[in-house]
Hints:
Structural class: alpha+beta
Helix content: 40-55%
Strand content: 15-25%
Number of helices: 31
CATH class of the largest domain: Alpha Beta
Largest sheet: 8 strands, mixed, barrel
Shape: rod-shaped
CATH topology of the largest domain: TIM Barrel
Number of domains: 4
Bound molecules: ligand C2E, magnesium ion
CATH superfamily of the largest domain: EAL domain
Number of strands: 26
Amino acid sequence: MRRECGQAEQALHEIQKRQQYLLSASPAIIFSLKPSGGPPGDYELTFISENVSTYLGYEAQEFFENSQFWREHVHPEDFQRIVAEFPCLSEQGYHTLEYRLLHKDGNYRWIYEKLRLVQDKASSSSEIIGSWLDITERKQIESALQESEQRYRLMFESSPHPMWVYDLRTLCFLAVNKTAVHCYGYSQEEFLAMSVRDILLYENISLLEESSFITESFSGSGRWRHQKKDGTPIDVEITSGPLTFSGRPARVVLINDITEHKRIERQLLHNAFHDALTALPNRVLFMNYLRKALERTKQCEDYQFAVFFLDLDRFKVINDSLGHLVGDELLLAVAYRLQQCLRPGDMVARLGGDEFTILLEYVKDLSCVNNVAERIHKQFSLPFLLGQREVHTSVSIGMVISVSGYEHPDDILRDADIAMYRAKSLGKGRSVIFSSQIDGYAVEQLSLEIELRQALQRGELRLHYQPIMDIATGRIAQIEALVRWEHPERGLLPPSEFISLAEDSELILPIGNWVLKEACHQMQEWQKLCHVGPALVVCVNLSMRQFQLPDLVEQVAHLLHETGLTPACLVLEITETTTMKDADATMRTLHQLKELGVKLAIDDFGTGYSSLNHLWRFPVDTLKIDRSFVNNLGREPGVEKIVHAVTAIAHALGMSVVAEGIETAEQLTNVRIAGADYGQGYYFLKPCHSNEMTKLIRLGALLQHEATELAGRSVDEVRQIREEIQYHVEHLLLKLSEFQRYIAPSTDFDCT
Length: 752
Ligand code: C2E
Ligand code: MG
Ligand code: MG
């Protein structure tokens, strides 16, 4: 019996030891409570496992020494809650609580408490068995998660960018923020009833199905086109990543509205290929199309195309005299008119300035091409109405047809350009189809430029002189110096053959300088030899390039000084168009020239679009009415009124008036009636060599100084001269053309 008892004790001891091990190894602190015998619900601790020291730092003993130990170590904030929540324990199931207990190290630990009432029916006593589990780490994770959830929610809700979450399987929206609602125009409810497909622009829907945006793992960005509720398309860049939303695989999307950015991008792209003023395709785009057309000719035998190179006639005059704004308006109107002349598939481009090109595709034959050219010319025969003003301009067209076996688009354009120049040289408003003979013309122009350069050095330039007559007295009042080129093979070339070439190549500057020097020198000679005095002046034409030279005034002063000519004996002629280039600069230069003492004339008046407002303020001495008016005097009643009015205003402002291009006695009568002071034209004399001019001046001088000059001559000579002079004086005008016959080489005057 003692032995059995001993064995039972041994077994109990073993069980207790194992229990002890189990309790120490348990992650939970185990305890038991029993009613304290005091007020109901008041319990006293009967057991607490040793491992309490591992989790809370206290020895189990400490709990027993102070019956309020637990109460004093519960977090004060949690205590009230625990009391309120403390369950009415029953044997059915466990009751749980979560609260903080103070660790011995001074920090609170989160405890998960699980309790159960155990009734001992035999002794009718009850006990509470409970456990504490340290859940501090879990609580920390939970709180971190909560914080991050809050942060995410805040970010999502207050993001300045639209954001949403959609279900990866159904593509339905699960959440959208306020910015998305504001931006897309759908309410929150409408959004949540829609799928991503509903806001994609039609062409983007199929792209979505193929994209990685519907795969679960994808995280990245992309560009899409969405549509707002009102149908407005919106370009977006979206950044997205996968997430789980209420347990479902979903995608969160942040949207960046790049509509403006895309618009600028598109604009830049458009600008790179289009002309800013007319919005027509530019050279780059035109050449691309031309390249493609050329390739097509190689693939398809029947395919032919044509290229037009167009250049506006007189655009420079319009632009310089009416200003750039009117010039721009004209270019816009031209662009519109050209488009009206073409079929829908044809292309018109602006290369720059007043140069346009046209690509006609699928042309059947030459007549199609000619028809288009004719249509364009017809359109250009009508005036352009720019504001209140009617502006006339024609266009010169060079044409190339693709049959000529071209390899490079540049060659086609070059030949069209050459043909256009040919058209211009034939007169304005024409079209020419390129052929190899024209190519020869371009080469000819180039070699002419080289020759002109040499002409200066070789001394092949000449000056011819044309008198400008005083209509009232028949006296030679002025002499205009007009340049010619004595070409070794082609003979005497008029300025129309080389002046514009010289202007384009800047050769006009040395040529102009030579003319000025030669003319001053010649005038100085005449003054010396023919005793004409300062009443006779020489007129020199200045080109626009010369007039714009910053040191023009110094150059003129230098030449006057070098030749010794009195400044008042030099008239500088500038065209109306030149004066309009820059009215302020013109005014300055004209004043400086006036200060120098030279006289100034406006040449070819009536051919440009000058602003009378400026013109009348310029310090000009003479107005030269263009030949075209003189020609029409007596024919068109309107012209007569214009010339009358212009003459009257010029006189009122102290200017004298020269009528240019008088060819007949009738025209002379007309300009006299119109009030012109001076006349110039073939009726009096064509421009002639300086020797002939010398004779005429001499003759004029003889008339003036009759007594002294005729003294040494034979009686017959004097009588003959007098008779001739008398004849012309009787007709009121010295008709010098008649004098040409009179001054035969045999009767040469000796001026020395
Ligand atoms: P412009 O200054 O108006 O000179 C008058 C032009 O009209 C001259 O032509 C002259 O021969 C022509 N002419 C004169 N009377 C008549 C007439 O009754 N009927 C016709 N049909 N024509 C007449 P040209 O010499 O051929 O000169 C043409 C233009 O070339 C000049 O017009 C002038 O603008 C320019 N030019 C001539 N020499 C020079 C020069 O040295 N420098 C510059 N920059 N230009 C010059
Ligand atoms: Mg002139
Ligand atoms: Mg003129």
